[in-house]
User: Which sequence fits this backbone?
């Protein structure tokens, strides 16, 4: 039934709509620099994990179907370790992993309409030997990926990603501390989540208007009902080869404070 | 293995965190056992060393000399025989460097791969089994007399909150040592001295860090005095505690060595 080109294209379009719909309300993942490396931040249901260590200097965060995020994660972890063992840790770069294996795999699963696609997007971070060279890659469900030098975001819609990037570009100083970056990450996450929930369909030609502080606060308040903050860093000051570290509850307290400050005043009075 | 099945193996999640299975699925076999017929009696392999580990009050010290020899020839005086496997474990190697370094590398990857794929640390018991398994895989090389490895494995036991030392025999059996462990050609000269120190002078477990480093350096010097295969540059000394692994700097060792050894 899909042997005619027209029908195949139609099937792919259906597939895009289906996956986009499933991803839309997903919790965004944002990535940004801080003075010791790179930070990944998201909000996650209790008992789950969305940010992972991939390799010595690689980390990722994903949204979408947990099983698909897990498949992506295992591809990346397996590849990185086999490559690192066979050659060296320095040969394990996101550019190589994505270009030559991960992206083609996702694309293939997406194109073969009798197979299930990856209902997932992910943000991958790579800590270069020098902190300013940190790179983020956003990988989409169709195998497309894009690189960003300073900030990265993966979210349910294109507009939500643009909104997060915009919020980080305008909200972060040149050499921020971890706390500053975390505060900025919370805001960018809230802005992105708000854009995903309330935005119209993606218009790739037009920049979405940034949401108001009230809208960001409302999105954060809504999220706090069922989600907990989760963050990890790639910290080049860690002594061992592995530079990944999950932030502790104590360190994440600033997230709750930042979200509280943004909470709409009316609902604050009610409490 | 054809391309499709190797890909399936790579992307399947069925390895349960086992790095060796993952490597094999990719057609990579670390430490391939040599065919017995291929062994060459005239082959001069580099070995001969002294490594030791002891548990002092607050952690464990793992140390080794720097010399690598082939027969009576000194091949290298900057060899590193004390290897950090992960933040919780250190391995000191004696025997064939080729097999030993490969073992250390496989272990390092195995522990990290397990942590990253299974989202939890491998247990101490699991780590000991992993090394034991590698020793068994290396049996063919050991029996031929060219690839034998006798490691000392030191680890911090998070559950018990203390460091532990293990000595392995060539077949992969592991023995926990309570106070100290020594291996290599120079170890025969110092095992008695360590026993004497521990039994009749002062228990090694009661020594503070400084005294433990001093004792370690003295032992390595004693071994180097009697064993021609032990020596080389400033020894490698690593300190394993609750906080992780610390490599003592050459300056620190020279300072302690100059005044007390």
Assistant:
């Amino acid at each position: 039934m899909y042997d005619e080109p027209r029908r195949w294209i139609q099937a792919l379009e259906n597939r895009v709509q289906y996956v986009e719909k499933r991803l839309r309300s997903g919790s965004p993942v944002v990535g940004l620099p801080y003075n010791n490396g790179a930070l990944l931040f998201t909000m996650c249901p209790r008992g789950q994990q969305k940010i992972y260590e991939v390799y010595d200097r690689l980390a990722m965060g994903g949204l979408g179907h947990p099983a698909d995020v897990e498949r992506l994660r295992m591809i990346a972890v397996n590849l990185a370790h086999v490559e690192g063992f066979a050659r060296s840790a320095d040969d394990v770069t996101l550019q190589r992993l994505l270009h030559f294996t991960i992206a083609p795999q996702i694309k293939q699963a997406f194109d073969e309409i009798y197979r299930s696609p990856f209902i997932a997007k992910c943000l991958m971070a790579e800590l270069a030997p020098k902190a300013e060279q940190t790179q983020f890659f956003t990988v989409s469900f169709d195998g497309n990926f894009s690189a960003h030098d300073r900030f990265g975001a993966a979210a349910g819609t294109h507009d939500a990603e643009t909104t997060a990037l915009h919020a980080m570009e305008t909200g972060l100083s040149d050499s921020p501390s971890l706390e500053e970056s975390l505060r900025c990450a919370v805001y960018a996450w809230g802005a992105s989540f708000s854009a995903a929930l309330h935005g119209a369909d993606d218009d790739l030609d037009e920049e979405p208007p940034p949401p108001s502080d009230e809208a960001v606060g409302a999105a954060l308040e809504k999220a706090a009902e069922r989600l907990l903050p989760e963050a990890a860093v790639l910290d080049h000051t860690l002594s061992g080869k592995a530079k990944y570290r999950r932030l502790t509850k104590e360190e994440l307290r600033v997230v709750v404070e930042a979200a509280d400050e943004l909470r709409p005043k009316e609902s604050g009075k009610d409490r | 293995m054809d391309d499709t099945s190797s890909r399936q193996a790579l992307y399947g999640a069925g390895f349960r965190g086992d790095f060796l299975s993952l490597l094999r699925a990719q057609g990579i076999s670390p430490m391939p056992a040599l065919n017995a017929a291929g062994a060459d009696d005239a082959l001069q392999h580099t070995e001969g060393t002294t490594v030791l580990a002891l548990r002092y009050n607050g952690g464990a010290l793992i140390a080794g000399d720097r010399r690598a020899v082939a027969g009576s020839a000194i091949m290298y005086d900057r060899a590193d025989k004390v290897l950090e496997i992960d933040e919780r474990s250190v391995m000191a190697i004696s025997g064939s460097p080729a097999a030993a370094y490969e073992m250390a590398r496989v272990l390092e990857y195995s522990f990290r791969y397990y942590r990253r794929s299974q989202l939890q640390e491998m247990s101490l018991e699991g780590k000991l089994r992993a090394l034991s398994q590698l020793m068994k895989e290396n049996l063919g090389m050991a029996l031929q007399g060219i690839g034998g490895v006798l490691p000392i494995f030191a680890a911090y036991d998070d559950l018990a909150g203390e460091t532990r030392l293990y000595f392995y025999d060539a077949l992969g059996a592991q023995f926990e040592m309570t106070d100290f462990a020594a291996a290599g050609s120079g170890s025969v000269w110092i095992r008695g001295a360590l026993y004497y120190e521990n039994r009749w002078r002062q228990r090694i477990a009661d020594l503070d860090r400084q005294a433990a480093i001093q004792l370690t350096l003295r032992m390595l010097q004693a071994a180097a005095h009697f064993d021609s295969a032990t020596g080389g540059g400033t020894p490698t000394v690593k300190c394993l505690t609750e906080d992780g692994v610390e490599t003592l700097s050459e300056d620190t060792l020279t300072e302690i060595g100059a005044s007390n050894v």
Notes: Residues 66 and 233 of chain B are 6 Å apart (CA to CA).
